[in-house]
Design a protein that fits this description.
Number of strands: 4
Largest sheet: 4 strands, parallel
Number of helices: 4
Distance between the termini: 49 Å
Radius of gyration: 16 Å
Structural class: alpha/beta
Order of helices and strands: EHEHEHHE
Strand order of the largest sheet: 1-2-3-4
């Protein structure tokens, strides 16, 4: 309240149970969906009515929303739900607020430490036309762009930042 309304809201949750689907429980599903998808809706409900015209909401997704990754069933499904929610919010909140998502390739952050196949994921992440892992700064630059006036006509889109990895067949 002291700082005034938000110009930018970034939902950057990345949590969940990293296991094969048949080794998960309902509580794992509920927790993963709540943090990765439902939280964006909860934040938008509170923030959007107070956000000024031209404000932006950005959800952070991952390639697991579109691609099948080992042990990523719950997180990937929750990120697909987040991307769907971004599209619905983009229509509902337009023309006042831009809503988009950024989907990153493999980024070496603390979240990757929870993968039982971390080293394989790192090799997988480097195997892209750009020849290097996506850095946190790459994701931040995409978010910054989507929140800038230059992105005024981008609504409900998921910007993929993966060094070109997902372009390959």
């Amino acid at each position: 309240a002291e700082l005034g309304p938000l110009d930018v809201l970034v939902h950057n949750a990345a949590t969940g149970v990293i296991r094969p689907a048949l080794e998960t429980e309902d509580k794992h599903w509920d927790w993963t969906m709540a943090a990765n998808a439902r939280a964006l809706l909860a934040l938008a409900r509170v923030a959007a009515p107070q956000m000024p015209d031209g404000a932006s909401i950005v959800g952070i997704s991952s390639l697991g929303s579109q691609r099948v990754l080992d042990n990523y069933t719950l997180v990937g499904t929750s990120k697909a739900a987040l991307e769907s929610l971004v599209r619905y919010l983009a229509v509902e909140l337009a023309p006042r607020i831009r809503v988009n998502a950024v989907s990153g390739g493999v980024v070496d952050t603390g979240a990757l430490a929870h993968f039982p196949n971390k080293e394989e994921m790192l090799r997988f992440g480097r195997d892209n036309p750009a020849g290097r892992l996506v850095a946190p700064e790459d994701i931040a630059a995409a978010v910054t762009f989507l929140c800038s006036p230059g992105a005024e006509m981008i609504r409900g889109q998921t910007l993929i930042v993966d060094g070109g990895f997902s372009l390959r067949a």
